[in-house]
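Worked example

This section walks through a single chain of length 202. The input is the sequence exactly as stored; nothing has been trimmed or padded.
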Amino acid sequence: MKQIASYLPLLAFFLVWAMGERPVSIAGFEHSVGGIYSAAEVLLLTSVLVYGGLFLAYKRLDKFEWITLAAVVVFCIPTFLLRDVNFLKWKAPLVNWIFAAIFLGSRYIGARPALQHMLGHAVNMPRELWLKLNNVWIMYFVLLGVINLAVAFGLSEAAWIQFKVFGNLIITAVFIFGQMPFLAKHMEAPEQAEAAAGGESE
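Given that input, the structure is written out below as tokens.
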């Protein structure tokens, strides 16, 4: 549910961009709707609404959601205020590299790597396997950041936006599902996970 909700701002961003720029007059106030700058405004607004709703529903946001929301604010505002799309083009690469840094830092800070924090409630693996898989995620985030940077500054605006909205989703889905056979070998049955959680709380 949270994953679906977090995708809505990007979908709204794409739909507004695809409209094409047109002036709209409301109560004597004229504003341009459609196109990249209007889409950046919608991305900012819908992100605040979606993540605000998730915060109210779950009483918290995880660190990756806070980073994503902060990046939207930091990169969208100068994009539409200064009419410079280059700010928005840097968002995906930098966010991916920040995620890579978090996964890398978790190897040395704290008792468990970042990936174990995310999946440890359902997957039971030795620490060395968690570290190896954590390294795979580090490389994934670094590479995805490089790909996003190349697409943003090397291809057309239309190709960049289509990749931003759909390409990243497809790559991430393939990456995650590609790990499922390996993770399935270590997944605990519900009763085992419940027993382990009970043991940790004693």
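What to look for: The chain has two domains: 1-83, 90-193.
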